[in-house]
Amino acid sequence: MLVAGGAGYIGSHTCKALARADFEPVVFDDLSNGHADAVRWGPLVVGDVRDSAAVSACMKAHAVSAVIHFAGLIEVGRSMHEPALFWDYNLNGVASVLAAMRVNGLNRIVFSSTAAVYGQPGGDSGELLDEDAPTVPINPYGESKLAAERLIAAHCRAHGVQGVALRYFNASGADPEGEIGEAHQPESHLIPLAIEASLGLGPRLTVFGRDFSTPDGACIRDYIHVADLAEAHVRALDAPVGDAGFVALNLGLGRGLSVLDVISAVSRATGRATPFTVGPRRPGDPAVLVADPSRARAVLNWRPAHQTIDDIVATALAWRLNPRFGPASATSAARVA
Ligand SMILES: NC(=O)c1ccc[n+]([C@@H]2O[C@H](COP(=O)([O-])OP(=O)(O)OC[C@H]3O[C@@H](n4cnc5c(N)ncnc54)[C@H](O)[C@@H]3O)[C@@H](O)[C@H]2O)c1
């Protein structure tokens, strides 16, 4: 398997799941945001996915049979300031990989998509989102990911190949065996930031808005463990895609938790209070974003193993206390008194 972006957070967990399923993951990554130390289950080829000749040469050299594509830029806020960069990485990167697949006669791609393709669904209604919900992204990140999905779907139709877009909700947690974990730089995700604040290793957490029409006024999201996401990718490699040759699937637990619920879970895990302040809402943050994952369950025969936020946070905390790589790896454990 060619795993584009396999040195990153979700990609590296997927490589571990691939190896467990007896595939050899060949990671193609420019290491702009990934970690060479996270590549442990197969070779690492350093390169930019927008360089189609390099991707094609890698496919040939390693005789790969399919592609899982994680490579891209992920920070929503940055996408507002640098839209052209996001379109370049997230759309041209996919076009380049599809071209290399054609050269090498590969016929399946599994693509990392996102709940951000839905934009602000249903206002504050809080209904579970299925894949037929309108896709109206509200930032260049979501727009570029939706465009990439559409390009893949068109490519599948035109060339008789097969594509699966996996729309993740909030990826979270770390490898339960502690070998790999989340090491984004900068970190923008709630659970690692809350853990930092709770352990006194990072600044006080900011909760963006407590005036949403939710029971406690904070945003509600669907947190899905990264190892369960990884397992879904392995299953997507031979999932049925229908006559269109392309299917999009929501990956979430189908259960919403508020930001304050997550903060409480972090405090339970660390045994310490998690200091936070309430700030204004971020532009474009919907009140509720929770998946209806029924289609993924049916198509992938997928059942997430990590069902509670305490379980998810426990793995994230274990990783934070003993990170094997990333910005926190050198001193973290020693600094937690
Ligand atoms: N983390 C989440 O909660 C989340 C949620 C929804 C969707 N996603 C999607 O999942 C994918 C992976 O997310 P992640 O959290 O693992 O991010 P990440 O930044 O940890 O991983 C992305 C990897 O891609 C590599 N990369 C980036 N541009 C590249 C290029 N041009 N050529 C080669 N390699 C390149 C980076 O070095 C990194 O290793 C992204 O496409 C993202 O849009 C993530």
From TrEMBL:
Q: Which residues form a coiled coil?
A: none
A GO term for molecular function: UDP-glucose 4-epimerase activity
UniProt-listed Enzyme Commission number(s): 5.1.3.2
Keyword NAD in annotation: yes
UniProt-listed InterPro entries? Epimerase_deHydtase, NAD(P)-bd_dom_sf, UDP_G4E
**Highest taxon in the source lineage:** Bacteria
Q: What does the record give as its pathway?
A: Carbohydrate metabolism; galactose metabolism
Q: How does it assemble?
A: Homodimer.
Q: Which PANTHER family match?
A: UDP-ARABINOSE 4-EPIMERASE 1, UDP-GLUCOSE 4-EPIMERASE
Annotated protein name in UniProt: UDP-glucose 4-epimerase
Record organism: Brevundimonas intermedia
